[in-house]
């Protein structure tokens, strides 16, 4: 996908810069002019259920994508991946020290029940996100960024002491700990969206458990979702201030996990866009409606060092090293995926962030780490078994229950058992929601995981594995790694180049010194999309898509 000039500028100027999530930006269909069809209805698929539609708690691609259609924050990403005013009338006024942001909110923004969206809604939402009682996965995005967030998350200060205040109903003031040029892009992320306190508290534990227990302030409202249903829909929000720009009358979404079913639904005009797995990508690659979306999402293998309070065999570095280096990644993408995805020899993806000095890609500057090396893997395996005092190991590998995930699991199982004598790998393929729950409880041995960037900076990936990060659910800890992350977020935050140079040191520790994770591939999506679908915006980071300006023309 093409990289916009604005992205290159951002890469040069960011001082700091997560799903879900693409390199470049823009639309994945051509913008069509002329007349539009009388029936504006779009039919889409998802590969999993919605785990949560609560903007504070959602931490997966499906849930974040839903919230991005139905709710809106201070800024929203445009087709070039640049944060533009949404819930405000103009960009913030920023103090000389670049720590205090003052926002003027729109006076015509309303909730779907007619209540005005006020500065207090942002204050409540942000305080809820950092409150330890909420246990929000994304609370770490505030950590070390917004004043007092670190202390609040640790339980040392009250949520009311967070550096955000409502000066009046339409004026919001935010105080940061350090300057952070990536802050604008964070404000387009759902965790930073407002919440109507009176409504949320009136629902209590039932808030956001179905489409009737949510208030919306974005282009669409979610309908026909009961919390576990495999289908849902979006309809226009008639209270949305910019409703004239919304062209679709309805978006129908259904969960489709079988790749053959998705193609059949597409061919029978029941889907307007269908994700393709390997064999179907090969079969359809010469069609006019076939396309590939390159992404900045990286899939990797997580090695859990502690399960149910006890150390696992993966607490042994040589065992982790053996598992990491014994997978032929090129063979994996060539034979299993076949959709344009590429091997990942690093956590931070290609074509995502760039050196502020000379615009070199982070990936090129760090170089390849975690490269397939069977000889080294076998040596580490022998040494690891010796250190554990065993001659064999039985491990459980967890992944999703989609057809593609099952094929991936079988390929990896074959690689490990073939290359590492004495290893038996049991496969556990479970629904996405269950895998997330097991991950949160750290109830797994090793698993296939993924991360799509939340903002444009290496830290959106690197921060995940700092000790204590809410996403570090595998008991990994290294003071040297933590120091790099802390330096980048603290003392070096105001020195763009020094901060960048510091972050270059992180991956070699994480991946080649500790073998804490093993990057597997950088995702691309092969799909079929009807040519009459116009202006379906694919986002560069954060939630995958924006449907606000999408329309049907020429069906």
UniProtKB/TrEMBL annotation:
SUPFAM superfamilies: Periplasmic binding protein-like II
Localization: Cell envelope
Keywords annotated in UniProt: Peptide transport, Protein transport, Signal, Transport
Residues annotated as domain Solute-binding protein family: 88-471
Keyword field contains Nucleotide-binding: no
InterPro entries: Peptide/Ni-bd, SBP_5, SBP_5_dom
Family: Belongs to the bacterial solute-binding protein 5 family.
One MF annotation (Gene Ontology) recorded for this entry: peptide transmembrane transporter activity
Signal peptide: 1-21
Main location: other
Top-rank taxon: Bacteria
GO biological processes: peptide transport
UniProt name for this protein: Oligopeptide transport system substrate-binding protein
Entry keyword annotation includes Cell division: no
GO cellular component: ATP-binding cassette (ABC) transporter complex; outer membrane-bounded periplasmic space
Source organism per UniProt: Listeria rocourtiae
């Amino acid at each position: 996908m093409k990289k916009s000039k604005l992205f290159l500028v951002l890469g040069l100027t960011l001082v700091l810069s997560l799903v879900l999530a693409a390199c470049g930006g823009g639309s994945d269909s051509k913008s069509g002019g002329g007349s539009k069809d009388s029936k504006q209805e779009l039919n889409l698929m998802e590969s999993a259920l919605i785990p949560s539609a609560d903007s504070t708690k959602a931490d997966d691609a499906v849930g974040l994508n839903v919230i991005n259609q139905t709710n809106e924050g201070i800024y929203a990403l445009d087709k070039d991946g640049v944060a533009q005013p949404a819930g405000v009338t103009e960009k913030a006024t920023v103090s000389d020290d670049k720590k205090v942001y003052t926002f003027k909110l729109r006076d015509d923004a309303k909730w779907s029940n007619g209540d005005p969206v006020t500065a207090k809604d942002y204050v409540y939402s942000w305080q809820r996100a950092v409150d330890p009682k909420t246990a929000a996965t994304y609370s770490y995005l505030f950590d070390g960024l917004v004043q007092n967030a670190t202390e609040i998350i640790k339980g040392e200060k009250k949520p009311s002491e967070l550096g955000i205040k409502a000066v009046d109903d339409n004026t919001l003031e935010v105080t940061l700990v350090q300057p952070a040029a990536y802050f604008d892009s964070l404000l387009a992320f759902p965790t930073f969206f407002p919440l109507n306190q009176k409504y949320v508290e009136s629902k209590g534990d039932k808030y956001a458990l179905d489409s009737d227990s949510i208030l919306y302030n974005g282009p669409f409202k979610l309908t026909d979702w009961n919390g576990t249903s495999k289908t849902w829909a979006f309809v226009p929000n008639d209270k949305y201030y910019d409703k004239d720009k919304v062209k679709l009358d309805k978006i129908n979404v259904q969960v489709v996990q079988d790749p053959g079913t998705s193609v059949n639904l597409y061919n029978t005009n029941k889907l307007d866009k269908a994700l393709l797995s390997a064999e179907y990508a090969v079969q359809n690659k010469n069609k006019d409606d076939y396309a590939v979306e390159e992404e900045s999402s990286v899939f990797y293998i997580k090695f859990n060092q502690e399960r149910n309070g006890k150390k696992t065999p993966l607490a042994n570095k040589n065992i982790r090293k053996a598992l990491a280096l014994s997978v032929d990644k090129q063979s994996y993408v060539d034979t299993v995926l076949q959709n344009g995805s590429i091997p990942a020899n690093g956590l931070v993806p290609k074509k995502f962030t760039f050196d502020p000095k000379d615009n070199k890609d982070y990936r090129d500057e760090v170089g390849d780490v975690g490269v397939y090396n069977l000889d080294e893997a076998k040596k580490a395996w022998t040494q690891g078994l010796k250190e554990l005092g065993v001659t064999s190991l039985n491990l459980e590998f967890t992944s999703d229950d989609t057809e593609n995930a099952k094929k991936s699991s079988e390929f990896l199982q074959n690689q490990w058992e073939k290359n590492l004598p004495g290893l038996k790998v049991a496969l556990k393929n479970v629904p996405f929601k269950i895998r997330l729950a097991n991950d949160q409880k750290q109830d797994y041995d090793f698993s296939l995981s993924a991360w799509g960037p939340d903002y444009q900076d290496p830290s959106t990936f690197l921060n995940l594995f700092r000790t204590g990060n809410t996403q570090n659910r595998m008991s990994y800890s290294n003071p040297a790694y933590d120091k790099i992350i802390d330096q980048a977020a603290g003392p070096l935050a105001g020195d763009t180049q020094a901060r960048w140079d510091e972050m270059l040191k992180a991956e070699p520790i994480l991946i080649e010194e500790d073998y804490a994770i093993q990057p597997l591939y950088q995702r691309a999506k092969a799909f079929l999309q009807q040519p009459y679908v116009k202006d379906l915006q694919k986002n560069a980071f954060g939630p995958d898509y924006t449907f606000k300006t999408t329309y049907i023309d020429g069906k």
